[in-house]
């Protein structure tokens, strides 16, 4: 069964850090583009970051550039999103999803993990 599962969310103070993980079962993450998305209450879902097939290309939303880093651990079949210097506006449910291209559509999504940035 194909499945994506996010983990690592939680409550953190402004300026803090979290590392989200995206784990796959039923397929190999490195054969797909993997995107991180987020959705805050009352807002549309937005793309946060993406890593291309094989990880050669990464991109970031302007709002997170310089603060977030996407990476792969192919041995563990994981994709990470390291989030530093977190701000209250980063509060959202974060999802990972797989696709063929970062600018294409994504066909499998995880259930999401809540990130709350608050003092």
What does this structure look like?
- The protein is an all-beta fold and 119 residues long.
- The chain is built from no helices and eleven strands.
- The strands form two sheets. Strands 2, 4, 5, 6, 9, 10 and 11 form a seven-stranded mixed sheet that branches.
- Strand 7 and strand 8 (78-83) form a beta hairpin.
Quick tags:
119 residues, mainly beta, seven-stranded mixed sheet, four-stranded antiparallel sheet, 11 strands, globular
From the alpha-carbon coordinates, what is the Rg to the nearest angstrom? 13 Å
The stretches of 5 or more residues where confidence is low (pLDDT under 50) are none
Mean pLDDT: 96
Structural class: mainly beta
Shape: globular
Provide the β-strand percentage band: over 45%
Q: How much helix is in the residues?
A: under 10%
Cα-to-Cα separation, first versus last residue: 40 Å
Provide a count of the helices.
0
Order of helices and strands: EEEEEEEEEEE
Q: How many individual β-strands?
A: 11
Biggest sheet statistics: 7 strands, mixed
Give a short overview:
By secondary structure, this protein is mainly beta.
Secondary structure layout plus pairing:
Layout: E1 3-7, E2 10-12, E3 18-25, E4 33-39, E5 46-51, E6 58-60, E7 68-73, E8 78-83, E9 92-99, E10 106-109, E11 113-117
Parallel strand pairs: 2-11
Antiparallel strand pairs: 1-3, 3-8, 4-5, 4-9, 5-6, 7-8, 9-10, 9-11
